[in-house]
Known about the structure:
- Keywords: Signal.
- Pfam families: DUF4148.
- Residues 1-24 form the signal peptide.
- It comes from Burkholderia cepacia (Pseudomonas cepacia).
- With 91 residues, the chain is an all-alpha fold.
- The protein has a domain at 30-82.
- Helices cover 59% and strands 0% of the residues.
- The chain contains four helices and no strands.
- The longest helix is centred in the N-terminal third of the chain and has 21 residues, at 2-22.
- The relative contact order is 0.07.
Amino acid sequence: MNRRLIAAAALLALAIGTPVAAFAQTSSGPTRADVIADLVQAQRDGTVPTSNWDYPPSTRTIARNRELYAIAHGEQGTATASASVPADSVQ
C-alpha cells in the first residue's frame, strides 16, 4: 500500500509539473544591440537625456538635445540650423 501511495504521488507530481514546463517562455526579449539602437535613436530624436523636472521633455528641450547630438556627431545640416541667424538681426 505504501508503495502504491508513493507511486501515485510521484505520478501526480509529474503530471502537475509537466504543464509548467510546456508553457515556459520561449521567446527572448530585446537583445543588447536592440536596446543600444533604441537609445541611439532616442538621442537622435532628442527625447533623451532629460531631467526629472522636465518630463516628458518639452519641445525646447528636444530641440536643444537634437542640436547637441548633431554637434557631437557631426551632422552639420541640423547643427547649423539654429546658428544660421545673421548676427545683426539678433538684439
